[in-house]
Amino acid sequence: MPTGPGQMALDLPSRPALGREDFFVSEPNRLALAQIDAWPDWPSGRLAVAGPPGSGKTHLAHVWASRAAARILSAASLAGVDPGGIAGDAALAVEDVDRLAGLPAPTGRAAEEALFHLCNRLAAGGGSLMVSGQTPPTRWRLALPDLASRLAVAPVATLAPPDDALLAAVLVKLFGDRGVGVTPAVIRFLVARIDRSFEAAEAIVARLDRAGLAQGRPITVPLAAAALGEPEASPADPPRIGE
């Protein structure tokens, strides 16, 4: 049911669309997608994907997993994984490997040891391994030197901060994931004002979704302006995307 002003808004979780057709290709991610598409011809069967939060690392993992029938795991979950239970010729994506350094020692150490054994198992069996983090593997503070050395030589697919076109597409997708339709004017207004980051895009979409639900109104430029604490753009404001 729609909510009116003062009513409780149900901030339901969104379901991101993670198919290949949902991945918007732009200069900041074109090369990374090409490296994903180069599978199964990855050197040593490995690829590292690096990029800021929200840049599309998980989306790329799902694109590859769909093609390679790969299993996707978080790095932290490896602490409870038996490497011997994964076939040597399997395809595996491990996300957020750079976060292992921030885990409690027993968990982080167990996860690193499992990943080390998986690296060896997949290399010996002809399997494939994709790992991801916010930075390249050479900057991950891993406790196991042998694991660090194995990941450091993996080719790196880098996702750069978004340009205007990619930021606009990300905003449209984030609203779409929440089942919210917005006009091109709203997208232009936001792109011209928010920080050039995926985190900023996620934050403003969530804020506007909550505001629209709470006030029982569609997401418009005036609503976006109020959320950003700025005056509404005038018709004379120069557009920044595709015009």
Question: Could you characterize the architecture of this molecule?
Answer:
The chain is an alpha/beta fold and 243 residues long. Helix content is 41%, strand content 9%. The chain has eight helices and five strands. It has helices at 27-37, 57-68, 105-125, 145-152, 164-177, 184-191, 198-215, 221-228, and strands spanning 46-50, 71-74, 91-95, 128-133, 156-158. It has a five-stranded parallel sheet with strand order 2-3-4-1-5, with helices on both faces. Helix 3 (105-125) links the parallel strand 3 (91-95) and strand 4 (128-133). The chain is elongated. Residues 1-15 and 234-243 have low confidence and may be disordered.
List keywords for this structure.
single chain; 243 residues; alpha/beta; five-stranded parallel beta sheet; 8 helices; 5 strands; 41% helix; elongated; disordered C terminus
Give a brief rundown of this model:
The chain is built from eight helices and five strands; from the N terminus they run H-E-H-E-E-H-E-H-E-H-H-H-H.
Proportion of beta-strand residues: 5-15%
* Structural class category: alpha/beta
Query: How do the strands of the widest beta sheet line up side by side?
Result: 2-3-4-1-5
- The residue-averaged pLDDT reads 86
Helical run tally: 8
- By DSSP, the count of extended strands is 5
Radius of gyration: 21 Å
Question: What's the SSE blueprint?
Answer:
Elements: H1 27-37, E1 46-50, H2 57-68, E2 71-74, E3 91-95, H3 105-125, E4 128-133, H4 145-152, E5 156-158, H5 164-177, H6 184-191, H7 198-215, H8 221-228
Helix pairs in contact: 5-6, 5-7, 7-8
